[in-house]
Amino acid sequence: MYEVRKKVLWFAVLTRISILILQVIFNVLCPDHNANAFRTPADPTEKHTLLDNIVTFLLGGLTRWDAQYFIHIAKYGYTYENTLAFFPLFPMLIEYMARVFRIQPPILNYSNIIVICGVIINFVCFVKAALVLYDLSLVVFKNTKVAYRAAILFCVNPASIFFTALYTESLFAYLTFYSMLESINNNPCVFLPLSLSSLVRSNGLVNLGFPVYFWLRNLVVIVLPNYILENKHFHSSTRSLLFNSRHVFISLFQIIFIIILSLLPFGYSQVYNYIKFCKPESNESWIPYHVKNYAIDNNLLLPGQHDFAWCNSKLPIAYSHIQNKYWNVGFLRYYEFKQIPNFLLAVPVICIILKCCIEFFKEHRSKFLTLEFFSGISRPSDNIKRYPLEMFVFVVHALFLTTFCIFFVHIQVSTRLLCSASPVLFWYCALTTLEDTKMSKKVTEIEYDSPENMCSRWKVFFITEQNYSYRETLIYRYFLSYFVIGCFMYANFLPWT
Predict the structure, then answer these.
(1) Which of 344, 334, 315, 357 is closest to 478 using CA atoms?
(2) For the chain, how long is the longest CA-to-CA vector?
(3) pTM over 0.90
(4) What is the pLDDT of residues 161-174, one digit of tens each?
């Protein structure tokens, strides 16, 4: 019989292997769509051996769309203005890992080494993300079955192909879930995953809300009540008053310290972008000749050659300007009739998140605007039907991201953005499949799945169960259909989420 975390680990590994196999099969069965998308310029000096052709055959389906940008940055650096829309940590990890494996004489060309390293990084990060999600769910719900089901559903999430392809979803999910868990634990070192997440995706900055919230909760629930209580007993002692005040100021200093350290890497990357692209004295000799030719042929802007508009801004941050210029990202800009299919793709994840948020606030409406509600802590006497009050900050976070997706981003991106940034989707679906399970079960609960499934690495509840409710059926079909169809669409350069 497998222990719960080991079961999650093995199932995460098996789903990644399934993705690798499916994308190869679909890539062979269907010719690639001739998409009018960016492709990193090929190095004319690179040789292609039989082994290179095998790697391209096996992993070529994982290098479509935005993956080309990450490959380009890992190989050549930030050579074009539009590459600044992609944050540096993921391609930097690939580059450093590729240097280690770039042996002499070369067995593979450098491009294929980069692809292999990207796949390995995402494989490891996804497994780690699934395990951290299980730990996080266990802390929030204190229920093994909910934590287990949430982690298993994460392994077959609707954006699964992007968690294995050369995208940032796996790395970002791992850093985000880990930041959430360490924020709950009030770990002062939470700035490390927070700062790294802000170097992976722009919405990593939103994760700063978690340590701030849990610091405020700790201040309201523990520090201030103790401070007031102790000063009532020792009101005549100036020394005691100063001692207790010190605890409040130390707590305040800690959260300020975490915020500053979390923002420093993001700020440094923006300064780097400004110096590289906005300074006229920038030297272009580091840019390979074929990369420059590709820029000329495709009207791409090289650093130091043009007067970039964002360089003259009061706060010269390239990201929002480039999203607007190259991808037409902005408030309600995606609301066009031709985008209706993309809206339909995003409807399921948006509806699930919004339904969860509405149900959460309805269930706890009697506590709304009370100190107990904003402390986010359920009392043992609370008669909780479905959602623990500890979900509060996660629900607010998911609601903010969903609202932002609806009004600002390319709507089809909502699926992978929300799957990698919020656990709420998986919590809601896990709870829906466990409606008849009492939420008062303890963490020491042993039977997390059927006895048969507990003795298997790959058998899980949605595979072996036979009598599904209507809502369970919808959830499983949504997850599994997007899991398979996503592999087919992405591997063949067809538009997907």
Answers:
(1) 344
(2) 84
(3) yes
(4) 999 999 999 999 99
